[in-house]
């Protein structure tokens, strides 16, 4: 099992690098929504989305190591290590039941986080897997680049990052540091097709996303013992930026 080395007692307070957006007007739902960014992404990039989600209750955005206020934190060896570190760093049972939303690599991190949460008594209602191959499909995909120039080329091809920012050497170096950490973790990831969580799974895909196929999205259905559905939106890999309000409303509605 991947959970044997979990800290026995999780932290009692949320660290500053887990960004909380309080539910507006008291929210309307019990529990909390947790947002997991894409590879190379920082919590600040999901602030607008989290603010929309907060219409339904407290929302948290996790921050991965090697960026922003965790720049000095060591890179995780694997996705399992990353998910485990995110879980033991905060009292998630106290704010459960949890609704997990992960975009791109963040969906796979959220899946492993859900496995840990369920094994540790933190209820997970649903996992929203956005623009991401199912866990069992990851190992079959081409290995992601890790050299400086290839990483920047990959980011440019995916879209979602301002070209002027990519041309700035200081920004580019910070981005490469973060995304290399994440890509190395995902390159080491492997998950059997029969690994399931109890929580329901909703997969979301973009019709113009050339990175994630329909078949890879449909495989998410094999990873839940609950219900599964798949929805499509217009746009590319970062379609979420164009559908923030609609997707947040759907997450808040519960299905």
Automatic annotation (TrEMBL):
Keywords: Virulence. The keyword Protein transport does not apply. InterPro entries: AB_hydrolase_fold, TEII, Thioesterase. It catalyses: a fatty acyl-CoA + H2O = a fatty acid + CoA + H(+). It comes from the Bacteria. One of its GO terms (biological process) is lipid biosynthetic process. Residues 34-252 form the Thioesterase domain. Belongs to the thioesterase family. This is Thioesterase TesA. It comes from Mycobacterium cookii.
């Amino acid at each position: 099992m991947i959970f044997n080395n979990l800290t026995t007692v999780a932290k009692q307070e949320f660290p500053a690098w887990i960004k909380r957006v309080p539910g507006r007007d008291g929210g309307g739902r019990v529990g909390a929504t947790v947002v997991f960014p894409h590879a190379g992404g920082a919590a600040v990039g999901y602030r607008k989305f989290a603010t929309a989600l907060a219409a339904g209750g407290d929302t948290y955005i996790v921050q991965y190591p090697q960026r922003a206020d965790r720049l000095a934190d060591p890179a995780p060896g694997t996705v399992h290590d990353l998910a485990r570190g995110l879980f033991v760093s905060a009292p998630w049972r106290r704010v459960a039941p949890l609704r997990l939303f992960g975009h791109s690599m963040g969906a796979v991190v959220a899946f492993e986080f859900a496995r840990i949460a369920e094994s540790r008594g933190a209820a997970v209602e649903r996992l929203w897997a956005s623009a991401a191959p199912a866990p069992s499909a990851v190992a079959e995909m081409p290995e992601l680049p890790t050299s400086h120039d290839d990483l920047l080329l990959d980011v440019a091809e995916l879209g979602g990052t301002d070209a002027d920012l990519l041309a700035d050497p200081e920004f580019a170096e910070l981005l490469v540091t973060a995304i290399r950490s994440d890509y190395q973790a995902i390159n080491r990831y492997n998950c059997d097709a029969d690994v399931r969580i109890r929580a329901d799974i909703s997969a979301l895909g973009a019709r113009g996303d050339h990175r994630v196929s329909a078949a890879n999205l449909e495989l998410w259905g094999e990873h839940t013992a609950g219900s599964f559905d798949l929805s499509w939106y217009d746009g590319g890999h970062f379609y979420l930026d164009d559908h923030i309000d609609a997707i947040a409303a759907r997450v808040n509605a519960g299905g």
